[in-house]
Each structure stands twice: as structure tokens, then as C-alpha cells.
């Protein structure tokens, strides 16, 4: 065991024995290093390890504190009958899986708050590009995307040990558009796609609109049920698979490295394309960036999709795809449904990446979002029923909450009456497995400003509604 792990275990033992109760402040890094006679590097690694494993959390300008130990959300045990081909249109909630809400509140849509967006730096990039804009910016853009942006992306991901060239990328109108093109490039109406359970509601609506059938692959605390996925591939029951693998929505789970490797291997072995929706890829809360399944894809069967919607600004509507062996059919499909993506926005984004502003921004918000997640978790532990189970994601911006006996659909309705937008578990599956679960967004800071419309007050009101519903149940 490394020295930093031994040091971390010392704190874990104290936490488990309640010698360090939840909320206790830990020694500052320099103090801890002196007390244990270790280097600052070792002390930092120990605290990083404790944060990554959920034992402690950091507060800006305040220090490190012992976290409440969360009881993990559980996943349903699917039987063979449950794992069946289904038409998502038949099982959609009344207003669809991902309905456009008539109201907006910070807890609903998965996105970061405007104050976390680098508006000034982005405006500077836009100004520089428009000042030197040539005529080409106002012509129809190249279908594959602006080469400058594709080159900037290739260089950007090279820093994350992902080796791509500009020719590998296709620029799209956001991640959902990238996924749509992938589905249309490798399947046709009536084909069956394997998805995770639970699955992002927007993907279920997309598959429904494209007339694809689905088979839901169970997720447990250990990850996807790869044995069942392989059986489906062996029997030729699916045309493709569609999975998120890092900081996935709605659970926040990241698949283990071994599973990501296995997904790439299975796709190649059975020549069954895998579409990897990796929109949260860059929002890991750990210092070491996670790798996508695409990293282990040697034969091009993994179609890697992402965007800037979750990391930067949803309104840019700018995404990308690395289609691998399906590049030609992907570009052809893109040309049928679009005359390219806004050239000016592409050039502005290339500028923003090349100046280093984008990487600096992503590194900053990863830390901030980690703090947000911990703040929301501690709040929910305090105000929700004691049997509530709250996810402990390694990245992303959402929390998945399960409260046994809760009617989450009714909760959603009651919350909407008070102007609070959340997502019930019914939005994330064609099955009725998640009736006692809901998802909330943690992209807004949780501050008690006294404003009745603040995120803090909305979360207070949401907890009041939940406790009222639970009392009515008993």
C-alpha cells in the first residue's frame, strides 16, 4: 500500500469509528503533513483519495470536512421477462420522456448556472474572430465541420491522451444531433438498440421519434450487465448499442475501466456498433480525467459523441462526433439533414480552445461542481427522510435520489405546482422500475440568499413536499 493510502486509511478508520463525526473539520494540508511527517505531495494525494472515495469534501477558503456517509441508491433486479424488446412510444409518460417544461427552475434541466460560464472570455474570443472574419465565415460551412475547430479538438483531446486527427471529427449541432446521426448511420426504423437502464430521457424520446425499439440493459453498482449484452449480440437481437460511460445521466455513475474496455472489445468481436454518448466526459470530479470506451476502440466500431453544452454553454448548440469506420456514411447522413453548422460559432469555439481558455474553464468548473454535489448531498441528508438513498457520483452535475414508497410522479406534479422543475424516475425507462426515484440538477450554487426563488429555497420546498407525501403514505 502506498504511503498516501496508508495515511488516508488512518482517517477512514477514525471516520468509521466516529472519532471524526460528519461535519468535522480536518487539519489543513500543511498542518497534516507536519503532524504525520510526510511531504505535501503525499498529504495532497491522501486528501485527494479521501475526496474521490467520498469520505471527505472540500469547501472553498474553508478547508476539508468529513462527509456524511451516503447509503447508495439501489438498482432493480431485472428478470428475463423484463429484459425484452420494447417500443418506447408505447411506454412513454403522458408528455414524453423528456418534455419541454413550461417553467424553468435550476433543479430540472441538467446544466451549469450562467455565473459558472466564462462569458467575458468567450465574448473576447467572439470579438477577435468577428474582427478578422473573412468572407468564408458567411458561406455555407463544410459538412464535416470547420477544419480549424476539428484541429483544435484533436489537439485539446491529445492532452487527455486521446489520439485523434482533425479528419476523424465531424461537427454537429449539439450532442443529441451527433447521436441522432449515429443512430441513422448504423440502423433503420424498426431496428432494436440496446440502452442502459436507467437511460437519459432525451435519448428515449429520440429513439421513439426515430421509430427504433429498445432493450434495456440493467445497471448495478458494478456497472452494466455485460453478459446479457453479449448474449444479445451473439443472437443478433440488436443492431447497435447506445451507452453513456462517464458521469452518466441520471445516476452520475462512471463505468469501470474494465467495462469500457470490454464494450469496445464486444463491439468489434460481434461487429455491432456502439454509440458512446459522452456529453459529461470532461466533468469528472477527480483530478485524473476518465477515458472513454473509444480509447480502446482499435477497429472503429465505437462512435464517440460529445458537445460543449454541459461544459460551456447549452445555447451554442455545438457538438462533435468521431464516427470511426462509419465516417463516410455519417457525413453523408449529415449532408442530407443539414447544410453544416454555423461557421462563425465554429471559428469562435476554435479560438476559445486554442487560447487555452476552454481547458482552464473546464478545470475550474470540475472543482466547483464537485463542491456543488457535496453541498446538495449534505442538504438532502439533513432534510429528507432517513431512508432516502442519494447517489455519490464521481462526476457530472446530477444527483439520483431514491426514497422507498415515494410516488415520484406525484412528487413531480406537486413540485411543478410550486414552480419547481424536477425529473421523476418514470422519465428514464420504458419499465416501471424507478417509481420511487427522481433526479435533480446541481449546476447552480446552493446559497441561502433569502430570495424565495433561490435554489436553496426551492430545495427546501421540494423536501417539504416529499416529507408531506411520505406522511400521507403512512
Automatic annotation (TrEMBL):
SMART domains, sorted: HTH_GNTR
Superkingdom of the organism of origin: Bacteria
InterPro entries: Aminotransferase_I/II_large, HTH_trans_reg/aminotransferase, PyrdxlP-dep_Trfase, PyrdxlP-dep_Trfase_major, PyrdxlP-dep_Trfase_small, Tscrpt_reg_HTH_GntR, WH-like_DNA-bd_sf, WH_DNA-bd_sf
Span of the signal peptide: none
GO MF, one annotated term: pyridoxal phosphate binding
Record domain HTH gntR-type: where: 1-69
TM annotation in the entry: none
Keyword terms: DNA-binding, Pyridoxal phosphate, Transcription, Transcription regulation
Family, similarity comment: In the C-terminal section; belongs to the class-I pyridoxal-phosphate-dependent aminotransferase family.
PANTHER family for the chain: HTH-TYPE TRANSCRIPTIONAL REGULATORY PROTEIN GABR, TRANSCRIPTIONAL REGULATORY PROTEIN
Name by which UniProt lists this protein: Transcriptional regulator, GntR family
Organism name: Marinomonas polaris DSM 16579
Upper lineage: Bacteria, Pseudomonadati, Pseudomonadota, Gammaproteobacteria, Oceanospirillales
Amino acid at each position: 500500500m502506498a504511503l498516501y493510502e496508508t495515511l488516508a486509511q488512518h482517517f477512514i478508520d477514525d471516520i468509521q469509528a466516529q472519532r471524526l463525526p460528519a461535519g468535522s473539520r480536518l487539519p489543513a494540508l500543511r498542518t497534516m503533513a507536519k503532524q504525520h511527517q510526510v511531504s505535501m505531495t503525499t498529504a495532497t494525494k491522501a486528501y485527494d483519495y479521501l475526496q474521490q472515495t467520498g469520505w471527505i469534501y472540500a469547501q472553498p477558503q474553508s478547508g476539508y470536512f468529513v462527509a456524511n456517509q451516503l447509503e447508495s441508491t439501489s438498482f432493480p433486479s431485472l428478470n428475463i421477462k423484463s429484459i425484452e424488446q420494447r417500443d418506447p412510444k408505447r411506454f412513454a409518460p403522458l408528455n414524453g420522456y423528456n418534455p419541454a417544461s413550461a417553467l424553468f427552475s435550476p433543479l430540472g434541466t441538467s446544466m451549469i448556472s450562467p455565473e459558472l460560464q466564462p462569458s467575458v472570455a468567450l465574448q473576447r474570443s467572439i470579438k477577435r474572430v468577428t474582427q478578422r472574419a473573412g468572407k468564408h465565415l458567411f458561406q455555407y460551412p463544410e459538412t464535416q465541420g470547420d477544419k480549424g475547430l476539428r484541429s483544435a479538438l484533436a489537439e485539446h483531446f491529445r492532452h487527455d491522451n486521446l489520439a485523434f486527427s482533425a479528419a476523424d471529427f465531424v461537427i454537429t449541432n449539439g450532442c443529441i444531433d451527433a447521436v441522432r446521426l449515429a443512430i441513422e448511420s448504423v440502423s433503420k426504423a424498426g431496428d432494436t438498440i440496446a440502452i442502459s437502464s436507467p437511460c437519459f430521457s432525451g435519448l428515449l424520446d429520440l429513439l421513439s421519434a426515430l421509430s427504433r425499439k429498445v432493450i434495456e440493459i440493467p445497471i448495478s453498482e458494478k456497472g452494466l450487465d455485460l453478459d446479457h449484452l453479449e448474449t444479445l449480440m451473439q443472437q443478433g437481437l440488436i443492431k447497435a448499442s447506445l451507452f453513456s460511460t462517464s458521469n452518466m445521466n441520471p445516476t452520475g455513475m462512471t463505468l469501470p475501466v474494465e467495462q469500457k474496455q470490454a464494450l469496445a472489445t464486444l463491439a468489434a468481436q460481434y461487429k455491432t456498433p456502439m454509440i458512446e454518448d459522452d456529453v459529461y466526459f470532461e466533468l469528472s470530479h477527480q483530478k485524473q480525467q476518465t477515458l472513454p470506451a473509444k480509447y480502446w476502440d482499435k477497429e472503429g466500431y465505437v462512435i464517440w459523441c460529445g458537445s460543449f453544452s454541459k461544459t460551456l454553454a447549452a445555447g451554442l448548440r455545438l457538438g462533435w462526433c468521431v464516427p470511426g469506420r462509419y465516417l463516410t456514411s455519417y457525413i453523408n447522413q449529415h449532408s442530407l439533414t443539414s447544410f453544416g453548422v454555423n461557421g462563425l460559432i465554429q471559428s469562435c469555439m476554435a479560438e476559445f480552445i486554442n487560447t487555452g481558455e476552454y481547458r482552464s474553464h473546464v478545470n475550474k468548473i470540475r472543482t466547483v461542481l464537485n463542491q456543488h454535489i457535496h453541498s446538495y448531498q449534505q442538504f438532502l441528508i439533513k432534510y429528507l427522510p432517513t431512508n432516502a438513498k442519494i447517489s455519490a457520483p464521481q462526476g457530472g452535475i446530477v444527483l439520483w435520489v431514491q426514497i422507498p414508497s415515494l410516488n415520484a410522479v406525484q412528487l413531480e406534479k406537486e413540485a411543478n405546482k410550486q414552480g419547481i422543475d424536477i425529473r421523476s424516475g418514470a422519465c428514464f425507462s420504458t419499465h416501471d422500475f424507478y417509481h420511487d426515484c427522481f433526479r435533480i440538477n446541481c449546476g447552480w450554487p446552493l446559497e441561502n440568499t433569502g430570495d424565495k426563488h433561490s435554489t436553496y429555497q426551492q430545495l427546501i420546498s421540494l423536501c417539504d413536499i416529499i416529507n408531506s407525501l411520505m406522511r400521507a403514505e403512512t
